[in-house]
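Shipment paperwork, digital attachment
Item: protein structure file
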Amino acid sequence: MNHKKYRAGAVLDFPQRTWPGKRLTSAPAWCSVDLRDGNQSLVTPMTLEQKLEFFAFLVKVGFKEIEVGFPFASESEFLFVRTLIEQKLIPDDVTIQVLTQSREAVIRRTFDSLKGVKKATVHLYNATSPLFRETVFGNTKEETIKLAVFGAEMFNTLADEFEAEGGGEEFAFEYSPECFSQTEPEFAIEICNAVISEWEGRKTIINLPFTVESLTPNAHADLIEYVCGKLKNRDKITVSLHAHNDRGTGVAATELCLLAGADRVEGTLFGNGERTGNADLITLAMNLYSQGVDPGLDFSDIGEAIAIYEKMTRLPVNPRHPYAGELVFTAFSGSHQDAIRKGMAAKPTDFWEIPYLPIDPADVGRGYEPIIRVNSQSGSSSAAYILETVFGVALPKPLQRDFGPVVTAFSDTNAAEISSKEIYELFSKTYVNLEAPYKFISKQDFIQDFEACSVACTMQHNGRETEIRGRGHGVIEAFCQAIAGAYGFSFEITHYSQHSLDVGEGAKARAITYVGISINGKVFFGAGISRSTTNSALKAVVSAINNIK
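Attachment content:
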């Protein structure tokens, strides 16, 4: 790779910048360009029916400005605009936006598409960077300004004609110096002010697009703050952003440019757009939300947003996409899982404060069950969390540590994530009610007096049944003595705990007992499940014995 064939973009010398010390405290005006920028980037563009469905969804989540097309570009683009207007599908509080080049025929056709609309923004653009002026169009700066002013004048003329006809249409005008971030700042200011002068007294939006993202986000912010300070009638116009993502920092650049004074953002859901895409409006909106700022857009059902997007664009949402990806509220790392589990169990405060989870998954319609998932990278607490939250099996800490390597080995062998069902089956197979080589058959007799307990049980060893008897201070000690007497070995109980399963089942509820036994300094674990608490405990002891290797 020859990096010397490239050069860095020009950086503005602007020590007067104020944006670094600011913070975002309110949402910008949002304008979705999914139906124009997003649609033109698709291998298979959306049909009319798909556009109508997508438009309805954008309205549903709260967009008040939606760019709906380039009416001159094709009959299908023109038809979509007409369908929205004629079928009265645009709510009164929503403004549609249409795009046009600075050419008379294009502008006239664009205004024709808007007859009968209640509110619309007409968006004029022409390329202003030296590369486009000199290489693509062969224009001077003066000719480039003249082209923009020509379009601005035509906007005034046609809007006046609409008003004279009494149709009631309400227009806002928008101008974009295309490739703004690659345009000389002083020239960008000059051409924008020329257009602003033509639209004096009208609702005006100056859109400053990073058509090709060529600078670092901080350099973009400097540029925005500098230009905003020199735009004519700044207090009466809206400054808009339209970032692409060529450097992968479209979201960051947009956020810093809002700090630098911009008022409005154009972008797309999930960042769909030409080349590497546009600024991702879902990420931008949810970033504000995570900082306690109302974004004005409702993504509480992120699953619906994903379904609509994937249906209309035929593009997948990355599983690691911020806030929306399938895996973004999932941890595989054991230390992460342990932190999340402890955070979820901690006493709640007035604010959401859970390790590794910047927002509550429930806020975007996601559940908690998949937060912790298990593979070979997971720690012992992860499988324990699944067993407790999904199956009600609360493993004691020593057993968690013993089970962890079993889960890791299983995942390594299968080279895959382990499902909740597989975790439970692995736990049961490893510890619960084990029956070989020793099997607990039944408890025939159990006598408790003031000093001791006597127990008689039927056991099976390698297929042969034997009645065993023992005596001790409690049923567990008596049972252990019976095993020692019958089979010639003894052990010490190092851990014992028990709890109910099937909470709410009353007399039908089962008990699960966890036992750890020590032989020659090594501990082996077993578990027993039974509707009898005593039998549950005895089965746990036998299971632990069966785990002796």
